Batch of 4 targets.
Target 1
Amino acid sequence: MQTFAMLTRLEPDGLQSPTAVEDLEHRVMEHVRVACPTAQWIGSYAVCGPYDYLDLFRAQDLDDATKISAIVRSYGHAHTELWPLTEWSHFKTVIHELGLVRA
């Protein structure tokens, strides 16, 4: 499983009422469960900045992560950015394999 971060920015007309946030969340997550049943949600965070949400999740591969991103965009009238993440310990192992960093 790969870990991904997805930043989401909703269009201004994406949500018409405060209760629409929860309704949108339930519909999106149900669709994700059906389309990508092996995906594991790590957490969702509201962001005060140029994006509205940050979601962290694990997916089998980039194809499944792309499906999740597309689902979010289609329901939320949103823009998403999808970033694959590498755990720091694994990153160091990869770098050491280059022979550029002393052990």
Note: The chain has a mean pLDDT of 89.
Target 2
Amino acid sequence: MRVFVTGIGAISSLGQGVGALQTALSEDACGIRMHELKAPAPSDQTVSSLCALVDDIDLSGISSDKISLRHLDRNTELALAATDEAILSARLTPEDLRTCNTVLGTSTGSTKSVEDNYHRLFAQGRNALSPTTVPRSMSTSALSALSLVYGIQGLCFVVSSACASGAHAIGEGFQMVRSGRTDIALVGGTEAAVTFGVWKAWHALHAMSSDGCRPFCATRNGFVLGEGAAMFVLESEQSVERRGADVFGELVGYGHSSDAFHITQPSQTGVESAIRGAFEDAHVDPGEGALISAHGTGTKLNDVTEANALIATVGDGLDTSDVIATKSLHGHLLGAGGALELAIGIIALNRGKAPPIHGYREPDEDIRLPLVLGQPKPIESRYLLSNSFAFGGLNVSLLMRSK
């Protein structure tokens, strides 16, 4: 059964909404800036760092009599903003939503609520916490909010697989629609993990850059933390025809693997398996080429591993491919990264222009890929390959075909 994308919603440091995202891409705008992260009061600890934060979250168009929108965790607010846009763009009715299935990816969940409440309990020595602590801190809090606000009564669950969470959620929703388990699936990822504590944890791994994310560049030195969300409406061909829905493209392949190798170090074999699996699942020859949205974290080891895996799997297809790496623009959204990068890839495919890698300085002799550099480049391929590779060796590749 064929599966189409009929709705997209997005929010990130590049702005709220697909329109803002399109504008940012056309202007090569970068959402990475210096921010001051503060520990919860009364601590006076702060850190200044490059981050990619959302300036404002507008939920004014959303209303609900089942949940207070004033007391939501930031992770939930981001998910609602992206979901509302995806639903509106797909023109789903309340009845469509009632029966749809929902899969949401998130890596750390409600980080700020957890961090703030631990601080109250252990640092401030309080004997009691707010009764909203558990509802705000659950890993499923954003998903539950979506169900309550939109009356979703179908199968709903959260996928948490580190930086592959959003991509896994999209892939699993794709399988549900393709197999006939549901006509409509609401899928994507959300993440609001740019907090003082999370920054300190990543800093301890020496994985973050202090001067910008430059994937595949010889001077790359790490990633930049970001936040945001992207959501999609997936529909069966029959549902699209019945509703007369417009489509953004067709999801045709889902490849996935687990390295079973190392908790932080990637395995080229595992990455290759996911990429190859996406093409095989779609019955598409990699030699046809694609717009490749790389995982591209900007770390020394990950970029080389991904480059070598692409050479091994796509082969001569790279001659007609273009490789983009948009974490250079919006930072690393962890569990929401794969979802936002798929949205950007779909926008690029439909516009016919691939966005260049922002801040790229000089080539790495160990990386021989057809990188998009300097200016947007016309896209020749009909296909989009979007890669997401997570700590613990959890890999996902999604393959789209243009509308």
Note: Residues 3-243 form a domain with the Peroxisomal Thiolase; Chain A, domain 1 fold (CATH 3.40.47.10).
Target 3
Amino acid sequence: MKKYILAVDQSTQGTKGMLFDQIGDLVARADLPHAQLVNEKGWVSHDPEEIYRNTLGVCRNVIAKAGIRPEEIAAFGISNQRETSLAWSRATGRPVCPAIVWQCARAAEICRRHEEAGEAEMIRQKTGLPLSPYFPASKLQWIMENVPEAAQLAGRGELAVGTVDSWLVWNLTGGRCHRTDYSNASRTQLFNIDTLTWDPELLKTFGIPQSAMPEVVMSDSVFGMTDLGGLLPAPVPIAGVLGDSHAALFGQNCRKKGEIKATYGTGSSVMMHTGQTRYDSADGLATSLAWGMHGKVEYVLEGNLNYTGASITWLKDQVGLIASAKETEQLSREANPEDRAYFVPAFTGLGAPYWDPDATGLLTGITRTTGRKEIVKACVESIAYQITDLIAIMRRETGDPIPVLHVDGGPTANAYLMQFQADIADTRVQIPALQELSGMGAAYTAGISSGLYPEDTIFDHIHTTGYESGMDASTRQKKYDGWKEAVQRTLFHM
């Protein structure tokens, strides 16, 4: 009897392979990092072929680590870094250039051209997304304009483009299937979230041929069959594909309207399930599709942050103030609580709700007594402040009080950060015992789709812990006002 679901969470820093048993418990996990390619212009890229090799590698490693037989795997699921954009040859399967990572703002000038042409509102109305180099549409246009092979292949109808999920599905199925799901499609800025199709006007605006686009299918579809490069004795279905933030929303069991989660990673996503209702934000949030399941789609409101956990990586790798991320909790506790330093991590501009690609990072409010501990504390707290910016807008625009924030990701292990998040956002922060929510969401989708998991009860065994808000209102307001002032300084490029 086949009784395991294998899932891959392909994220910004690396690839995780996860094996879940027949009751939905995580049995084993294997990780492989991939290179972060940053050039002198600050452009951020990944090697698509390295990502595929690592995908096969973590699958092989996790099966060996768990000591199971490959033939016991029932289905395969994928969660992926979403806006990272790729283009490759349909004939050879080779990428025409490195993948352009979601963080990369190299397409900012292209977005300015569309803004000056008066196209921004049309784009937002159709896609629910504010015009930004964050999203794939302008990244893919950059490839079309700057990589001659892409234009040549497009002219012959031999170009394929997509996000990381499409790249993996293509390779895992031997080039037989070029597909994406509704969650990933809705993040490309080329997909009309009302008509649920690739929009001809948007494709023309960004210069992307229709023939290059993947087929869009339900998130719980069979995307194709794979033997994982010969690892499995017989092919199994790729039965669940979701963008990582959407997969985490599903893994958090936020399947009802009004439920909200924050994923803390390199960057962060704050996502609220809005059911059948499409909210159009007036304050910089994006409207996307949660997923397509059981033949219907549902919507979300979302804000994306470029640098949250990555700020801690910067402290370690570029500044040398810490040797590991684990140090930040104790250093933050030991810092002077009255210190007024704020850190705004706009390394490559600011994402939601400000959407300023020209903003640069800022450490402000320092005094003669500000030292290493206070700077570390400011970086840690910047994560919570950015999340709170988005929660405040969601409260205002939906009227939901948001009494509970479901959280996941590596930084949630930092108890100082989690308590500060509860305090500054004035909400209960709830953390599941299993932190790999993106991989879990993809695995549960594949397990439900393939009939191994009962949808009504598979989430019942998940345990959580929580943090309650304990900060008084005046202190909270004073601290948050200081953050908003720091952000304004960044926006005015002072």
Note: The CA atoms of residues 198 and 420 lie 42 Å apart.
Target 4
Amino acid sequence: MDYHFLLSKQIKKLLPEHYLEDDTIIRFLNSVNSSFNNFDKAQKLADHAFNVSEREYQQVTTYLSEQNEIKQRSISQLKEAIKSLDPDSELKIYDSDDDLIHIISFLQERIEKAKELEVELIQSKDIAEKAAMAKSQFLSVMSHEIRTPMNAVIGFTHLLIHQDPKPEQMEFLNFLKFSAENLLVLINDILDFNKIEAGKIEFETVDFSVKDLISNIRLALLQKANEKNIKIKLMLDQDLPNAVLGDPVRLGQILTNLISNAVKFTPSGKVTITATLSRGDKEYSTIDFEVADTGIGIQPDKLDYIFDSFSQASSDTTRKFGGSGLGLTITKRLLQLLGSEFGKGSVFTFSLTFKNSSKHINNGISNDEFYSLQSLKGTKLLIAEDNQINVILAKEFMKQWDVECDVAENGEIALMLVKTNNYDMVLMDLQMPEMDGYQTTTAIRNLPGNKYRDLPIIALTASAMLDIQDKAFTVGMNDYVSKPFNPNELHRKIAAYASKN
């Protein structure tokens, strides 16, 4: 038998050979041999385990070292980031890069302050929204309260002018009409500015002639220009389309602001209005507009300033020339909403693209919308209005147009009269006692029978706020006329709804 090499050496050296024949000795030697072999195996395992542990230990140590470096760099970067975000804060972090406890405490403190600030911002936002709503409501009320008496002032002035007054009276009446209309322009500027700020501006899409629109604006401003001996010249491209689709009221507002400003700030000379077709095809037309004057001009450093709200080039401009300081602001914002390009300098230019209209318009009258201030005899309507002065004014116009009319001073009376009479339409004031115009319209629409569902109801509103007009349509009104109303517009709408009936 082969024994472990150490055991073999000891047997040869110390054990006589005849002992190797004894079974007891042999069993003993085998047992010792197994112990030697087991010891060798255990030693090899121990050596292997030690080597493996050493390698793993080195790997773990290297990994921990790398992670510690990453942590130190991260902490340093975190410190720098915190300090850059809030350089004025007292950051209680020591120089040791592992001071995570102080960093976490600091961040928790900042988070709490951020939450407090968020609460304050939400409260401030609520306050601002309530203030904006209060402003909007105030403007709506102010609009109604100012425009209601203005309706009487302008309306009765219009009636007096058409009753052959004496020459000296005609002069005074024209002054009165001009001053009242100027006051109305200021009111409308403030209301329009509020609507644009609130994002509630809306644009119509109707057929109109650009040539006729510009010509009419020129005629409207000609008297003021003649008083200053200023010429207003038109240069209209012959290639301009006969009719386009767009919002003539807003384009008219833009041009009126620019042209009236040109007349206002021109002591002598002329104002030139140019409209040129720059691009056009079968579907669209792009028109370049220009308003130039020979007036006082604008200082270069004031070019941007004059478009700011309530701002004018000089502090004494309002005293010398009048105005609210909103005209150019509204003009600029309307043009931004319409997608135009604005020019600079004393010459104001802008470009707008319109869709071409399929209609033909002749001298401002569409071929399918012709009307005149003819007699409306045979028309019977109800005027629901609580303001007695406005009732007198409306009845006077109805008398001139041969319109038969009844008057209801509140919504309850209006509802009763609608039930007991056959009217061609109702002119419905929105703000009345007992039942307002909205409630009365809803009640009429709920009456049984098609005639109540189809009865034309035209809102008479002294408010120019869009939400008022939207609400009027929502409750079932067919149309609206703003006070102070234009007699021609009111006549046209009465004639249109009377013809349908």
Note: Residues 262 and 356 are 30 Å apart (CA to CA).
